[in-house]
Fold this protein.
Amino acid sequence: MSAPISGERAPLELDAVINEWQRLWRENGFVGDVEHASHADDKGQYHWMIRLRGEEKDVIALWLTLRQRTVFLETQVMPAAEENLEALYKFLLVKNADLRDLHLAIGPEQGIYLVGHIAVGEVTLERLDELVGATLHYVDEIFPTAMSLGLASLYRRRPSRRTL
C-alpha cells in the first residue's frame, strides 16, 4: 500500500519536518508564521498553517492537514468569482493541465483553491520544500489573471515588486 495508516507519532514527525523547514527558510523573507494546533480536531486530524509572502498576492495561507493516510495541502487562490465565469474556468482548466503535484479546485463557497495530497510517509524536508515552493509559484502565477477575469470590476493588478 503506498499510503499506510499513520501512527501516533505522525503529528510529532510532521511537526518536526515543518519546524525544520521553517527554520531553514525563514531568512529568505517568503515565510511568515507557522501555526499548529497541538490537538486533533473532531475528525482526528491535525492542522498547520504556513503563511507565505507572495509577489502578486501579499499573503498566501497554506493549510496542511494530517489525515489518516495523507497530508492534504490547500490554499485559496481567489474568492468566489462574480464575472466572466466561462473565461475564468477555461483559463483555470488549461492551467490545471500544466500543474505538477497540485491542482486547482472549486471550494464549497465557490472560491478557487490550489490543493494536493501526499502520503504521510513521503513528507520529508525536501518534499515539503518542493510543495511549498510550487504553491508559492503557482499562486503568484495564477492569481493576477484569475482575479482580472473573475473579479474584473474589483481587481486592479499592481505594478510588480520584483527587482533586478
Notes: The chain has a mean pLDDT of 89. Strands lie at 31-36, 46-53, 59-66, 70-78, 103-106, 112-119. The longest strand covers residues 70-78. The chain has one domain: 10-150.
